Amino acid sequence: MFKSAREAVSFIKKNDIVNVDLKACDLFGKWRHLTTPARYVTETVLKEGFGFDGSSYGFRAVDKSDMVLIPDLSTAFIDPYWQQPTLSFVCNIHEIEGNEPRFEQDPRFVCDKAEQSLKKLGLGDEMLLGPEFEFYLFDEVSFSDQMNSASFKVDSWQAHWNTGSVENGNGGYPMPLKGGYHGEQPSDRFASFRSELCEELHSMGVGVKYHHHEVGGPGQVEIETEFDTPRKMADKTMQIKYSVKNFAMANGLTATFMPKPMFGAPGNGFHVHFKLMKKGKPMFADPKGYAGMSKVAMQFMTGILVHARAISAFANPSTNSYKRLVPGYEAPVSIVMATSNRSAAIRIPGYVKEAEDKRFEYRAGDCTANPYLMFAAMVMAGVDGVRRKLDSKKCGVGPLDGNLYELSEAQQKQIKTLPRNLLEALEALEEDHEFLLADGVFTEGLINTWIKRKRDEEAMPVMLRPHPFEFQLSFGC
After folding, report:
1. How far apart are CA 218 and CA 188, in angstroms?
2. Whole-prediction pTM
3. Which of 6, 50, 111, 200 is the most exposed, having the fewest neighbouring CB atoms within 10 Å of its CB?
């Protein structure tokens, strides 16, 4: 939005901005924010930034925790979720030593470095990503985790189970349990909600291609964005999640991107489309190649699939992720590429004919990911595939057409699968992360911290807790 601090300060004064909000991404992909009254914001303040405690973001030990947030002036947007006029910036994280260099483990910086690694290879000057965001909108949610009890409950008034409710009824127009894809009004209660949300996002600089109801009947919806570069798209991913949750709250709803919030209903994916351009020309297109894809595209996809198990530690970094990634459903577990096949980890859209739009879609990810680290890991895996000239067939990742679940038992055994749980994913990352260290994009310190904290703070605590269904299975043993 702004090219200089002077331009930003002038805008603040001319538009009677009351607050300036500084947003930064912590290690696990959550936005933190610091707010300052706009009257204190000067050109010097914007250039020098604001000190903060890096240990609370998961980056530093307490005894060396001083760091600096410096706003990226190009990311400014009028924040619609404040009562007073508020200008928000996304920030970079800087060290305090020397000339305050960027912190090498800042997720935004990691993503920037991945883009530079791609350009250094000479493949293209612009990698473009287009995500699809699936999420549920609930009317009620509650959950509890105590020593002697554990429970959760969600409710959606348009769900099939509410046809018998007078108080929360859906007027006889429920959305079918697994029949919500492109469902129409009045069963689709959220059409206007999505339209208003997309206008809100547009005002913040986030373009949306389309939106619709998703398969999950009890309030699952999807919005798909326009394409942008990895770091910019990661910024926009943070904006979208922020907007969805705040806009839902303002409308008496609650939103979740949780991969599997309900048993027996479809999970929420974070499908990401990739295309590569060089001087405006598509580098993933070749009419003579498989499904119209170029040699570079095939090598890039192969790199992602070869490293898919390790990537899962960033693309599916929660215990709940693996409640969604189970065999036999649309969420993919098979590490293969295929055309028009939504059960493969990488799908090449069969309906895309124009060279300028040739792309592939990685379907396994979910929104518990830190988008900066997920996108960076996938770019680095693709770069590794091109550097090593990986052959998809020799690597055993396809292309494989046909229904993957109807293959013979012998054929299915030849297909590698994604991890079955978070611990497996972390072990895969532990064993396979050299490709991430190329060009200094990721660091050993970041990877080790990620593995340790995810294992100690998420995977193990979930393993130690009894599950309600276990009482049904084992209480009377």
Report:
1. 10
2. 0.96
3. 6
Convert the pLDDT of each residue in 256-311 to its tens digit.
999 999 999 999 999 999 999 999 999 999 999 999 999 999 999 999 999 999 99
- Contact in structure between 338 and 398 (CB atoms under 8 Å): yes
CA-nearest of 308, 329, 323, 314 to 417 is 308
Alpha helices in 363-459 (DSSP H): 371-387, 409-414, 422-431, 434-437, 444-454
What does the alpha-carbon distance between residue 102 and residue 99 come to, in Å, rounded to a whole number?
9
User: Which tokens is 262 given?
Assistant: 């309900």
**Residue 272: CB partners within 8 Å, gap ≥ 6?**
129, 130, 131, 132, 361, 362, 365, 375, 378
Task: Show the domains of the chain with their CATH numbers.
Answer: 15-103 (3.10.20.70), 120-474 (3.30.590.10)
Q: Are 12 and 21 in contact (CB under 8 A)?
A: no
CA distance 235 to 112: 12
b/e sequence 249-270, b meaning 16+ C-beta within 10 Å: eeeebbbbbbbbbbeebbbbbb
What one-character DSSP code corresponds to residue 26?
-
Residues with a known catalytic role: 53, 132, 134, 214, 222, 271, 342, 361, 363
Identify whether the C-beta of residue 293 lies closer than 8 Å to the C-beta of residue 275. Answer: no
Instruction: Report the amino acid identity of residue 82.
Output: W
- Out of 95-109, 141-155, 397-411, pick the least confident: 397-411
The residue to which tokens 């991107």 are assigned:
257
At 145 the three-state DSSP class reads strand
Euclidean distance between the first and the last CA atom of the chain, given in angstroms as a whole number: 64
